[in-house]
Specification:
The protein is an alpha/beta fold and 149 residues long. The protein has one domain (2-148): Response regulator (Rossmann fold, 3-Layer(aba) Sandwich). Helix content is 46%, strand content 13%. The protein has six helices and four strands, in the order βαβααβαβαα. Strands 2-1-3-4 form a four-stranded parallel β-sheet, with helices on both faces. Strand 3, helix 4 and strand 4 (102-104) form a beta-alpha-beta unit. Helix 1 (13-28) crosses helix 6 and helix 2 (50-58) packs across helix 6. The radius of gyration is 14 Å and the shape is globular. The relative contact order is 0.21.
């Protein structure tokens, strides 16, 4: 299974989501999953943001090698499941052919909760990155629970 996480710049939320999902899959022994990320307005090749790097280091998530990718029609086609951080990102994924396999992350992982997506951390205080990482860890854990059912 090929899972793709999508946000705006692919330097904060989706980069963290990718790292968290890889760790969850590893810890659960899920072998047949490939996890990646992209951004609808990414600067191709940009590193993870300082906040994402620092929070990743605190949680033993290595984002040092992360480089942003622009979301393309090919990336959408290659993915089996796509998780957008917000409904605006989801709309852009759908325009690139993601219908039927794309969802807002927290709406998929917590059906009926109507949480409103994962808010942007870019430029925020480190505490905002920590809160977002907490939310991503929780929702991605639920995501894998749902996929394992």
């Amino acid at each position: 299974m090929n899972i793709l996480f999508v946000c705006t710049g692919n330097t904060c939320r989706s980069a963290l989501a990718e790292a968290v999902a890889k760790r969850v899959a590893e810890r659960r022994g899920v072998k047949d999953v490939r996890v990646s990320s992209a951004g609808v307005s990414a600067w191709q090749g940009a590193p993870a943001s300082d906040g994402a790097l620092l929070v990743g280091m605190e949680r033993q998530l290595d984002l040092a090698a992360h480089r942003a990718r622009v979301l393309t029609r090919d990336l959408v086609a290659e993915a089996d499941l796509i998780f957008a951080m917000t409904s605006a990102h989801l709309e852009q994924v759908l325009e690139l052919g993601g219908r039927g396999k794309a969802h807002v992350l927290d709406e998929y992982s917590s059906p009926g909760a109507n949480m409103g997506g994962i808010t942007d951390t870019f430029g925020g205080e480190l505490s905002v990155y920590r809160e977002t990482a907490d939310l991503l860890e929780r929702e991605i854990g639920k995501l894998f629970d749902r996929l394992e059912r």
